[in-house]
Amino acid sequence: MKRLEGEPLLAIARAQGPWLIDAEGRRHLDAVSSWWVNLFGHGHPAMQAALADQLATLDHVMLAGLTHEPVVRLSERLAALTGLGHAFYASDGASATEIALKMSAHAWRNEGRPGKCEFIGLTGGYHGETVGALSVTDIPLFREAYAPLLRLSAALPSPDTRQAGPGESALALAQRCAAALEAHLERHHERTAALIVEPLVQCAAGFGMHDAEYLRLARALCDRYEVHLICDEIAVGFGRTGTLFAHEQARIRPDFLCLSKGLTGGTLPLSVVLTTDAVYAAFYDDRAARGFLHSHSYTGNPLACRAALTVLDLFEAAPVLAHNRVTAERLSALCAPLTAHPRVRAHRQLGMLWAWDIDDAGIAGFSGRYHLAAREQGLLLRPIGNTLYFMPPYVLDDDALRQLADGALRALESLS
Ligand SMILES: *Cc1c(COP(=O)(O)O)cnc(C)c1O
User: Fold this and answer.
1) Ligand 1 center to 362 CA (angstroms)
2) Any idea which fold 3-30+320-415 has?
3) I need a surface site. Which of 25, 117, 204, 330 has the fewest CB within 10 A?
4) Under CATH, to which class is 48-317 assigned?
5) Which tens digit of pLDDT belongs to each residue from 71-90?
6) Does 151 score more than 90 pLDDT?
7) Which atom of ligand 1 is nearest to the CA of 35?
8) Would you list the domain boundaries of the chain?
């Protein structure tokens, strides 16, 4: 609140494609996809048409004892894409994490193993900020004030390549971190319900990236020690890492897959937890107490489901991932001068994600000051600590790519 006195809010009046238009008519490139949710730009005509049609047909109805076409079609299409045939809906990412954690522990309980009720995450992991989700989130700034409210869970070493020792490859680091996971599971598997990971990229940790081998090894260890694997693809799902879902790159299947953010292309709040036949079977019973008693008022909202169906339609209507590969190559080339800047310490890129760690010595309050400097360049960018990153929508033309690459460099130069 105090900061706003010196840094007034930017009022956005309209948005079109990748552009946000402020109250004074200035255009800002939404290079963070409005906090990682937008995929195909703002005001997409197909999205507008679908939502207008849905609003005129069925706006909302409860999903207890009732059903509707958008939620059935969406569940079937997500099942076909992931091989996970059971879906549970909520309205945001943190709720998806809560659902996955509760469902995992409850499934073990129903299988006669109530002792399996602890969770493991990775250092720097982020899974949302409600009390349960915060328990598996390892970001001290977010946890500190609420520490007495949180359940203990173990944070095991993350295979984030920035943690590699001298001369240690990403693969060797992945193997070393998997060995730490194995050591933990060996001792604690009897009381561990699930491991929760952000596949390939820990976005909130400052876009820490890891080798897919970690996911393969983690999957094998979870199988061996009978622990669920929860993949939180709330941020990285829907093509951000170059494949539709990040875990595909490790050729594994999680026991739970959490999706939100890009699920509706950045239009409406919706999240889903997809799971396996085995988990479903653990709840299949006449006794209510063995059912999954969890509900949200807007579960399976038809408008939000219709938005998600439109996102899947857009992925089917054009070779989006192939188009993104061309865009990514072009943007990486345009960013060569930024990457070569003397203040850049670490650079990484995957799919439609770019990150640079900046040596911010002598630039007090780097992230806030960079944000304002980028605003001068017509760019919406919000570094995490000293990590500058791009997570743009998939609809940047060459002018927009140039403005992003050139403006990000000029903003850095203006602070150096
Ligand atoms: C954003 C995010 C969440 C939380 O989603 P909300 O909708 O903000 O509650 C959880 N996990 C990851 C990986 C995220 O990026």
Assistant:
1) 32
2) Aspartate Aminotransferase, domain 1 (3.90.1150)
3) 25
4) alpha beta
5) 999 999 999 999 999 999 99
6) no
7) 1
8) 3-30+320-415, 48-317
> How far are the Cα atoms of 26, 163, 174, 341, 354 from residue 347, in angstroms, in the given order?
31, 14, 19, 11, 8
Query: Which two tokens mark 138?
Result: 């390892």
- pLDDT (tens digit, 9 = 90+) per residue, 31-49? 999 999 999 999 999 999 9
Which of 38, 260, 272 has the most ligand 1 atoms within 8 A of CB, as the residue to mutate? 260
Mutating to test ligand 1, I would choose from 127, 135, 298 the residue with most ligand atoms within 8 A of its C-beta, which is: 127
Residue 230's nearest CA partner among 190, 273, 193, 197 is: 197
Q: Determine which residue's CA is closest to atom 7 belonging to ligand 1.
A: 93
Let me know the angle formed at the C-alpha of 121 by 120 and 127, rounded to the nearest 5 degrees: 125
Q: List, chain by chain if needed, residues with CB within 6 Å of any ligand 1 atom.
A: 92-94, 97, 126-128, 198, 203-204, 232, 234-235, 260-261
Q: Label the pairing between strands 353-358 and 344-350.
A: antiparallel
Taking Cα atoms as reference points, which of 203, 230, 233 lies closest to residue 219?
230
For 215-267, how does the pLDDT look when each residue is reduced to its tens digit (9 = 90+)?
Answer: 999 999 999 999 999 999 999 999 999 999 999 999 999 999 999 999 999 99
